[in-house]
Amino acid sequence: MRTPPACLLGVFPLLLACAGAEAPVEYPDAIAADPGHYSVAFENDVLRILRIDYAPGEASVMHHHPQACSIALSAGTWQMTDPDGEVTEDSGSFGAVNCTEETVHLPVNTGSEATALLLVELKDGASAGSDPMPDFPDAVTADPDHYSVEGETEAFRMVRVRYGPGETSVMHHHPANCVVYLHDQPTTFELPNGDITDAPASAVGFSSCGDADAHLPTNGGDGELGVVLVEMKGRATAGG
Question: What phi-psi label fits residue 51: left (phi over 0), alpha (psi between -120 and 50 degrees) or beta?
């Protein structure tokens, strides 16, 4: 057996971090093991996005996840059991992003409230693409005040987006990406041809996935616009 990877810390680090041993083949995938708590929001050849929902006191069964990054859609507290029977406690806050290596665990929601996460799993063998991109700078390079990388794998990266009321950007591009809203505000996008479009209103959580594009956003609301983008490195199309 290979040496297990070191645990990575962040939101719900024990919910998603290594469980003391690399995932043996006999532990099932989360969807196969526990479809009552795990559902697929999006899937292509690069990644799979799972929606995770636990009511207070609910427990799962032992299962495994590949290398992944999570986005917390609520605060929560958890008790985690690893394949050796070791039990650990964990907690996390709304909106945090955490990336981990392959893991095996059995989670229990020990909080008094329902808790939810999105988990972006790296597909086996997925790698960055080399597709042509729109002829504008990358968002993180062009506008680091509003865009920052909070985690990444070989084939995707998690980009935090924050705009205060009335704040605007510069023209930039994104590769194919999936949008996760944390705080929604009326937002406009100026396109390279000068057209202005309105972003559709969206509830907190996974919104949609789309192809590479270029735009200049403006937060037209009176509150913070908060988004996490799951960008597929070097990919022009999202597929799925």
Answer: beta
